Every structure is written in structure tokens, then in C-alpha cells.
């Protein structure tokens, strides 16, 4: 590969200063003249039948412009899923169900109007426990590899445990908020933070309008992590704006955001692992039960994804797995950073520690003996398509830990015990049949416009595409302008989720840039009387290799393109193939990803064996990223993702009481702060074998999947007993030590 000028370098982001000083315009920051304030009225009790809704008192309140219920929806009463209503008509299933909408002149008036809407409910029996499979089972996935019974017969030891991972919230810093209005053309404009501008299509169906009459314009997001995929806020704004003829703004409070937002699935996981006395895995059996919450949503695909990586990044000759999801009246669960890999990584890596302990082996050495290699198969029989650099990462990690902490890990001081835990992980990116486009054009002065539909969630998506575009065409970074996530301007790329957009949008950007580059080289070849293949482009100058003095600038080449009738625009497209491995027919294209990211995390913790208190001292994060397009951004993903996983491991849990969320704000839902952040080391490997541009892999989710597991293994190593649930509360520490309830 020729030397890269922009890709692979930590170049300054053009919006960095604006973010640092608070000038970035987020969803709730845009205010329009004459705007009304909207509010969503949610279920007063669950589950229940809606017997009557009386809006008369609210409508009589001065300043109220409308109150809408399900009967006022002109089109289809369905959000992202046909069974998930925009406004509940007959039944409410969970606390986030919306029953009515209000629009009024001010926040005070709309709050009062909401209190005046009278809703008569008739209680229904509820179901809140998923572990016993009492509710509707929405899926029952099974996988089998090799001969599981023979694998356990071959084993010298067998370890069995049951693990639990609690539900957690996305906890993004920006609650949902946005504005909707009908412009002078009659187009309904929706400006909301979303991960999917294609939501305009669903909102058009709700409004009973052609899709071309609805425009989604997504601002910069203050985080999302899977929690801003749905079209419901956009639908509410569209309904109110159309009804009132005025701009309408809705901004959720933290409590409202928590009430309606999807959660990460809680998992109950049963693991049975067999190994020989010389440290080779022979068999793994996994059984996963997940709580889908009030709506099946995409639990079917998510628990299958968890099952696919539930064996971890190891060569397992014999495996059996099962994964089910159960409908309850708890908050509905869906995509959240890691999509099931977090939970099974915790269980799988805990098993690795337990097996190593039974064998008397060092936990990292045991993992080394079993790391999967390129071409070997995962739980669902899918071969790993690219290089696995886990041995190299393990070497660097071990050296860093020794250098940082010394060889000892079990130090003690009074009741405090210290331990180091490891977690190797596998996470996928790029689903089969995913596709997307990017549109690029070049101006007469040589500057480049890139249009890309992917939303910027705060993870530097815009800057990534800018770097790729500059590299692909051969221009300076400052000459590239990127427009993202405007459904009337930018191409379709699918949701910004699943660590997929570097592969999809980045790949489409690369291809459109390469096409434009080809046109420029062809034009310059005419001017320089040289063959196009003998030319190169650097920072806006096209020159003959070996004779740089023979050159033209890009504006000259652009003028020649016009003379030669060569297009000054290009649409790049990426379309992934389908699964082809033996056995994929059992799962279709949902049964795995096109490629995988491998990494190892480590944590050093100290635990008070009298109180159960935990202090996280050090943390190491490392993955093979294929190629780091922006190394500093990669490190940021490592740190931010791992801290989210640490929260899942230590403090974060959505607690409910008969389906109602108890931990609905950040006083009771505890996200780690800078005070809880440990001393940090991040490093990455670059195999160059990723499916993305220049060999990059998707890295948004993988750092989140291993962190809770590493922390749990560190705590277990410190106290000499196995942690079996996350988050790890002091009570759970004392429970596994046999001290709970003792003086």
C-alpha cells in the first residue's frame, strides 16, 4: 500500500473547538419563530386496557392547540415495528407506551394540559419475570457443532455455572429533543437526533403522506448507543406540526427519556465447559434466556447474535447452544452497544477463569492455548474470515501489565485484596446484505463535496469520511466538506449502528473518491502527455511519478474533465454478500457477521472483603482494528466503550417494580464518573485485513463488550471466589464470600 497522507493520522477535527466551547447545535437547541411545545402522555399504569380518554378539560385550557390520540392518526399507527403503536389505542404494555400528544403555547401550559387529560384504565394481569419462560417465547435458536457428548467425555474436567447480566440503559448525555415543522412547500420537516434518517419513511406512513413529503434532518448527536433508532419522536412531532400548522418542539426530561427508551437485554446464562488436563477446550454448552420486555422488537436477531459469539474467541471443537427471548411487561429491550456480546463475554470469560483455576493454569496462558485462528469456526460453524492477532495482543498486554504493576497480583492490605482479570472477546461488524451509497462531487476550484447519509453520533463519523475522501481523491483535508444525514440530500446508508458505518459509508466514500480520482488522472494525462497509471495525486497536485516537476493542479484537471465530458461527480456503493458457510441455512443472514474484531482487556481491582467495596485501579484495552483511520479516535472508542462496559460491570442497573422503572434518573442510575476512572492504557494492533476502507474494521462496539468481563474476573481473582452477576454490588461480593447477613 502506498504511503497514506490523511488516513492513519490523528488530524484535528473541524468541529472540535465548537464542541469544546459548547457551540454545537444539538437536537433541542434549534428554536423556530412561533413554535409550540409538545408533550407525550405515557401509560399511567401497566398492563391495562384503555377504556376511555377524555381530552375536553385539556382542550378548554387557554393556550392549548390540540390533544391527539390514536384515532387522530391519519395513516398507519405503527412505529419501527408493526405491532409497536405510535399511540396506544386499546392496551398499554409498559411504562413507555404513549397514549396521547398535546401541543400548547408554553411548557407550563402543556404540562398542565397533560395533567388534565383523563384516561380510564382497566388493569390486566402482568408478567415481570422472564427466567422461568412463563411469557411468550419469541424465538428459540439452536446451534450444534461437532459431537457435544463426545467432547464432554473427552474432558478431564467440566465446569458448570449460571450467570446473570442485568438490564442497563444507554445513558447518553443528550436526552431526545427536536423540532418539526411544515415548510412553504408542504414538506414535513423533522429535525431530531436519530441513528436512522430512513425513519422518514415510517413517519410518512404515520402521516399518510408520500415518503417524498417528509424530510429528516439529523443534527449532531450527544450519544446514542442504539437508543435513538426508533421513529417515534419524529412521528409525534410530525403529527403535531401537521395538525397545528405551527412548528412544534418536544424535549424529553431524563425521566421521560429513561421511561420510553429501549434497554439492554438482561440475560440468564447457563454454561458448561469441558477441557483436558493439558489445557485444551473440548466442549462448550450454552443456554441463554433473555427478557424481550413488552415488545419482541428485534430480540430474535439480537439473541441469535449473542449465541453466535457466546463461545468467545476460542477454538472449540464441540459446541451446543440455545438462545430464547421472552415477552414480559418490563421495559422493552433492543439494541445497545454490543448487542448481546457484552453479556455472553462476561459469562464465557468467567468460565475460562474457572477452568484455568481447576487446571492450575495461569488464566492468560490457558486462553493462549485455545485462541481461535483464521479459518477455524465459531459457535454457529462460521469460519473466521480474517487474521486473528490475539497472540500478539496478549504478548503486549502481559508486558504492559508487568511493567505497570509488577508480577504480583494478589497483594493484600488488611481487608483489601487485589487481583488482575483478563477478558478476550470477539465482536462482529458488517451484517450480510448491508448496503449503502455516498455521493461525491468536485468544484471548479478543486474542492470536494461529500454527501453521506450516516448520522454523526459524536464518534467522529463525519471526520472519518472526510479523511477517507481526501485520501481517495488526493486533495487536502481542508478542501473537503461533508454533508451528513439529510434525507432530501444524502443517499441511503441504513442506521448508524452495529459498528457498520466505517465499512459501509466509509467504503462508499472510498469508491466514489476513487472514481473521481480516475477521472482527474485521465484528464491530467492529456495535459501532461503521460499515461494515467504513471500519475499520482498529492494534496491537490497531479504529477508524473519520478518527475514531479511535470505537474498540474486539480482545478486545471477539472477544466480538462469538462472539456473531455468526464463526470465531476460519482456515487460509490457498497453491498455486502450473503452467508455461505455450511449450516448458515439454520439462521439465515442473521446468524453472524461478515467479519469479526478480536481483542483482550485487563483490569486490576482491589476489593474490601469485609464491606464488598470495589476500587478499579488499572485498565488495559486492546483490539486489532485492521487499520486505525484516526488513531486518537480509536483510543477514544477504547476508553469510552470500556468505561461503558465498566459501568455495566460495577454500578449500572435498570431496576423495576412491577414493570415500572425505579432507577429513572442519574441519582439512582449510577454511571461511572471521572472519579471512578482507573489508570488507563490503550493500544491497538493493525492486521490490515478488515473489510473496510484501507483494511479498517468496525471498532465502535467491541471495546464495550469485554470490559465488564475483565472487571468481574479481576474481582473474582482478588477475593478467590467467582462473581456470577453484573453489576457487581457489594452485597454480591459478600454473598459469594458467604458473608452476606453476617456480623
List segments where confidence is low: pLDDT < 50 over at least 5 consecutive residues: none
Shape: globular
What percent strand? 25-35%
Q: What is the top-level CATH class of the largest domain?
A: Alpha Beta
Major beta sheet, strand line-up: 3-5-1-12-9-10-11
CATH superfamily of the largest domain: Aldehyde oxidase/xanthine dehydrogenase, molybdopterin binding domain
Number of helices: 17
Q: Describe the main β-sheet briefly.
A: 7 strands, mixed
- Might you state the CATH topology name of the largest domain? Aldehyde Oxidoreductase, domain 4
Radius of gyration: 27 Å
Percent helix among the residues? 25-40%
Structural class: alpha+beta
Which secondary structure elements does this structure contain, and how are they paired or packed?
Layout: H1 16-21, E1 36-42, E2 48-54, H2 56-60, E3 64-68, E4 91-92, E5 98-104, H3 107-116, E6 118-123, E7 137-145, H4 148-154, E8 157-165, E9 177-182, E10 188-191, H5 199-207, E11 214-216, H6 232-244, E12 248-251, H7 254-260, E13 267-275, E14 281-293, H8 299-308, E15 319-327, H9 341-359, H10 363-370, H11 390-405, E16 412-413, E17 416-429, E18 435-442, E19 448-452, H12 461-473, E20 480-484, H13 501-528, E21 535-538, E22 541-544, E23 547-553, H14 554-563, E24 569-575, E25 595-608, E26 614-624, H15 631-650, E27 656-657, E28 660-661, E29 679-685, H16 702-719, E30 725-726, H17 730-736
Parallel strand pairs: 1-12, 8-30, 10-11, 14-15, 19-20, 26-29
Antiparallel strand pairs: 1-5, 2-4, 2-6, 3-5, 7-15, 8-13, 9-10, 9-12, 13-14, 16-17, 17-25, 18-19, 18-24, 21-22, 22-23, 25-26, 27-28
Helix pairs in contact: 5-6, 9-16, 12-13, 13-14, 15-16
